[in-house]
Design a protein that fits this description.
The protein has eleven helices and 13 strands.
């Protein structure tokens, strides 16, 4: 262990779905948390010791904010879960790649640097896989999100030249209360209108939000952890398996499949990502010693909806 309790974590994206849970768990386990936000006056971060302003598109993080920081967790990024157009896609890229470049440049200007930078990435790194299994050693894909993830991770890796340990967290579909993928899917399911997406044969690699927070904190606290980690549960499921399990957990029928053309009408190009088959295994995450709290889909859904 290299970072003791009562250390100070700087978290970007701190009022988002993942950032809020991470900050709460970190504070509960003895870490001090400083949040970075574009709108510190309205940021929802009650766990934070303080909230500092940062606009990554126009400014560096002030050196005064980076003093005496033990670890930086970079989670900020434009949401991808809406209809895509060229402007939206540019915002998705810039909010990840440019902000990470700005953050690393900011770190280069402080004398005492944090021990570790944990930067979010996504399983989109791997692209479409069919039934193929992806591990942290698998090559990247070549679609839009795969290219964004590659640029994003390369920007984070520049911090290694500053002597900072870098961990890149490739997030799967995150489940939890009050947000994430479930927040978008539950309304039609509760009305009895839920069903598989497209053919339903595509693989879904998922993770409970408590395990996301757990992996990030594990990466911070253990100096042997570096490089890419898949933040996906050990047992991925197909979309139809997920659909049936969710219906069983909330006791609703799942009789109404959502055809691809209907998804295209609503989400445009984002539909390709929604229907992408990604069977992503956390091989390195497990080998480095992390123990998942929620390894199977039914337990994770019960915890998310309980």
């Amino acid at each position: 262990m290299t970072i003791e309790n009562k250390s100070t974590l700087l978290v970007t994206g701190a009022s988002g779905f993942v950032g809020s849970r991470l900050g709460s768990v970190a504070a509960e386990t003895g870490h001090r948390v400083i949040a970075l936000s574009r709108t510190p006056e309205t940021a929802a971060a009650p766990y934070a010791e303080r909230v500092e302003a940062w606009r990554p598109d126009t400014e560096l993080v002030p050196s005064s904010v980076l003093n005496d920081i033990s670890a930086v967790v970079h989670l900020a990024g434009e949401t991808i879960g809406t209809r895509w157009n060229p402007d939206k896609k540019q915002r998705i890229r810039d909010s990840r790649v440019n902000s990470t470049n700005q953050l690393v440049e900011s770190l280069s200007k402080v004398e005492t640097k944090p021990e570790v930078l944990v930067c979010a990435s996504a399983m989109g790194f791997y692209g479409e896989g069919g039934d193929e299994e992806f591990t942290e050693n698998s090559p990247p894909g070549n679609d839009f999100l795969a290219e964004v993830c590659q640029e994003w991770e390369l920007a984070a890796q520049k911090a290694e030249d500053l002597g900072i340990r870098v961990v890149r967290i490739r997030l799967g579909h995150v489940f939890g209360k009050d947000g994430g993928l479930l927040g978008k899917m539950l309304p039609p399911f509760y009305m009895g209108l839920g069903g598989r997406l497209g053919s339903g044969s595509q693989w879904m690699s998922w993770i409970h939000i408590d395990d996301v927070a757990g992996i990030i904190l594990y990466a911070i606290e253990n100096q042997n952890v570096n490089g890419a980690l898949n933040a996906t549960a050990p047992i991925p499921v197909t979309n139809i398996e997920f659909t049936k399990t969710l219906g069983r957990v909330i006791r609703r029928p799942t009789l109404f499949p959502v055809p691809t053309f209907a998804l295209k009408l609503r989400y445009g190009e984002f539909t390709d990502f929604m229907l992408m088959s990604q069977r992503v295994l956390p091989e390195k995450t497990l080998s480095m010693g992390y123990e998942f709290r929620y390894a199977d889909i039914e337990t994770a859904l019960q915890a998310s909806l309980g």
